[in-house]
Structures are given as structure tokens and as C-alpha cells.
């Protein structure tokens, strides 16, 4: 018993020290980067505002959400706090400026996060289609994967094509060099990541797992995650020369050996340091590698920061 208490005391000290490390870095470096003050006049249509004729896919810094469809997961006030990473619906996230969605499903097509369940995938697809019907120039990356420990839904690739076919941008490495205007009226890059079923092939309406990569680490320590994100990003080629999307997640994850198991207070340890991360990318000369930047509980400032870097790239300021 005594050793367990001692362990928890040390864990709390480590977390406090890592939060202080980021706060000190923020105090010394600030959060200034090219066009950092830029804010879209209309987040729902921010890609349209940046100029679709000049905005190449490989110049976009895509604001993304982690475990996107968890706003109604589990049982309210009982299991939900342990798995909820977003409190907005998919439509509300898109309206706020989110352009990359991370969806986990199980065999019966219900969205899940581990063992906890929420609505059917149809809810996600309908929200996406509603948003697409109300906008003209916004491109979405829709990543759908079979959750770890679950089986692939039967014929799910056919379902996605049937539902989104008119909007799907086919898997083609030339897409990265094209502008938004050149891709229209196609609007969705759908990455399907089954666990056992065959991966989508080149030319398919769907994209395979190799086209959306990351280096996720399982930690609740904010400075550890922050530094790992910088290191892993520095090992990537510039976005302009990649033929895949690379994601950095500004999140930390509750750990089973820590008494704080609810997502929101844990991920809050790093949530406010998104602009600091972007600033550090510029300071270290790796801002040209930044592409998908995801978060829990997305907010307007996070979106604005991603759009600001995108705008700076288009205007030749970054």
C-alpha cells in the first residue's frame, strides 16, 4: 500500500514538473509565428477564404480531431468521461473548421472507443454530407479505422463508396500537388484502415493506411508528448515532397496506473500549448513538415492557428 502511494506521489510530481516545463518554454518563447494573428472571417468556409485556386493540398495545415465521434459515447456522467474526446457533433466540428476526422468502428458499424459504444456510422456520414451540401470549396480527410480488438464490418468499403461516391477523391499520389479548385467537385479524401480486410489499392475511391501516418505515443506526460511530437516531425520529409499525410496529435492520454482517468483533465495538460508547438516548429526549422495537427475538444483558437500557417504558406510568408 505504501509503495503504491509513493508511486502516485512521484507520478503527480512528474506531471507537475512537465506542465511547468511547457509553461516556462511558453513564457520564454511566446507563440509568435508567420501570420499568427490571421483569423478566418468564416471558419465554416475557411478554405474558400484562403483562395482555392492557390491552395495546394500539400500546403494545408489541416485542423483535426482525435477520436472525433465520441461526443455521445458511453453513459453520461458514468462511462462517458473516460472515453469522450470531443463534445461537439461531427457537423459542429466541421462547421467550426475541423477538416480531418478520426473515426473508430466495430463489426456492426457502430462507432466505438475501446469497449465503449456510441451511434452508428450513418450519423457520421450524414453529418459529413450535410456539411458538404452547405459548402463549396472545403475538402475533408475522413479517416475510418476498425478499432483495435474489433473485427472489420463486412463490405464496409462498398458502403463508403455507396454513401460518398460523388464526393470521393480517388487514391492518387498526384492529388498532393493539386489545388482545391483542381479537385472540385470531389471533396473527400476517405482513408479506410481495416484490420484484416484488403487495403484499398491505387486508383480506388478510398485511400489506404499508408497515406495517413503518425507516431502516436501512449503517455499522460505533456512535455514528453510535446518533445516526442517535435522529434518525430523533424524526421519527416517536408510536406511539399511527401505522398502521404502525416499527423501530429496535441493530446495526452489517461493511464491505468494514474488515479486521473477522465480524458478532459488529462488532455488539458497539453491542450493550451498548440500555438507554442507551432512556434517551436518554426524555431527549429521544421514548420515545412507540419501537415495534420489534431486535438481533443477542438476550439476556435486551435483552428485559427492551423489556418494562419496555411495562409502564410499560400502568401509566401512561411
UniProtKB/TrEMBL annotation:
Protein name: Phosphatidylinositol-specific phospholipase C X domain-containing protein
GO biological process annotation, one example: lipid metabolic process
Residue ranges constituting the Phosphatidylinositol-specific phospholipase C X domain according to the UniProt record: 51-192
UniProt xrefs under CDD domains: PI-PLCXDc_plant
Short name of one Pfam family: PI-PLC-X
Classification lineage: Eukaryota, Viridiplantae, Streptophyta, Embryophyta, Tracheophyta
GO MF annotation list: phosphoric diester hydrolase activity
Gene3D superfamilies: Phosphatidylinositol (PI) phosphodiesterase
The species this protein was found in: Malus baccata (Siberian crab apple)
InterPro entries: PI-PLC_domain (IPR051057), PLC-like_Pdiesterase_TIM-brl (IPR017946), PLipase_C_PInositol-sp_X_dom (IPR000909)
